[in-house]
């Protein structure tokens, strides 16, 4: 039996995010209510039949998702229960024991964990802090070889919030094309760009790409649990068959609500709400980090997250535990991404909650810093 690696970040969040007072571990923005979504659309939900829906997503929803990608149609789409299921079934289909899987890191650790559980060999392509969390093209060319079955790319990035540069994107696509390697592109933060320029899908540059997305991050609708994958039509159908063994279908109610959210008249208003939350939150947390004097952080390109290096004599997991126990504040330690002396802060919560939480983090930081100078 292959080794099972617990998904530490998700176990941490799942255990504590709904019991702390201030949750700064989330990477999306403050969620919409059902009433707010329906009000944006000017519609009702009380006539939706709560039966089994189309297992790969309704035609209406798949067409709405396909509109987000150049040259795509409904047959290229499989709707899933969040992008986590999309990533899982793609990895399940593509990774076999002994396969080499290249992953840009630090990253959301689901895909490396699943690859390892399937017996694959994970090779890391480091995102370099000194390059603005971009990969070095020399690393790309060295690590992606003829033996590489799959390259996993999260773009925009998690935990860094960085969008791949044109140079990095070109190097990754060139390496995959040279070796015939598949790309699994987790694009869940597309639409949550702080400056509003939508990140182009990697699907647009190469035909062996499976891209995944969801309504959880950029749309503020994580409770709908609607995600998707897009790929060549025959691949989308093969992955749909894998879904028969997992969750079978999205909920009929959430399928319909997702189609409402992606309506061409509704979607831009949801995304502008998201970007407004991100811009406001970044102003608050950026000023706060400068005031603390112990943080170094690159401004994120997308997502309500920042990956902040800190200069304090404490391990990130210990710091996170102290904040949880002593201050009822939840953050994600850099240790959960395999990198030390970092914190991932989520700043998509309302301004009053963000300010209150950061005040409590500052109290703990001040106490730790005082011990160093004592």
Q: What does it look like?
A:
This protein is of the alpha/beta class and 374 residues long. It is built from twelve helices and 14 strands. The strands form three sheets. Strands 2-9-8-7-6-3-4-5 form an eight-stranded mixed sheet, with helices on both faces. Strands 10-11-14-13 form a four-stranded antiparallel sheet. A two-stranded parallel ribbon has the order 1-12. The longest helix has 26 residues, at 267-292. The N and C termini lie far apart (51 Å). The relative contact order is 0.17.
Largest sheet: 8 strands, mixed
Give the topology string: H per helix, E per strand: HEHHEHEHEEHEHEEEHHHEEHEEEH
**For the record, what CATH class of the largest domain applies?**
Alpha Beta
Number of domains: 2
Residue stretches low in confidence (pLDDT < 50, at least 5 long) are: none
Class from secondary-structure proportions: alpha/beta
Q: What portion of residues is helical? A: 25-40%
- In CATH, the topology of the largest domain is named Aspartate Aminotransferase, domain 2
The name of the CATH architecture of the largest domain is: 3-Layer(aba) Sandwich
Q: Any idea what the shape is?
A: globular
The whole-number mean of residue pLDDT values reads 95
Number of strands: 14
User: CATH superfamily of the largest domain, please?
Assistant: Type I PLP-dependent aspartate aminotransferase-like (Major domain)
Radius of gyration: 20 Å
**Strand order of the biggest β-sheet:** 2-9-8-7-6-3-4-5
- Total DSSP helices: 12
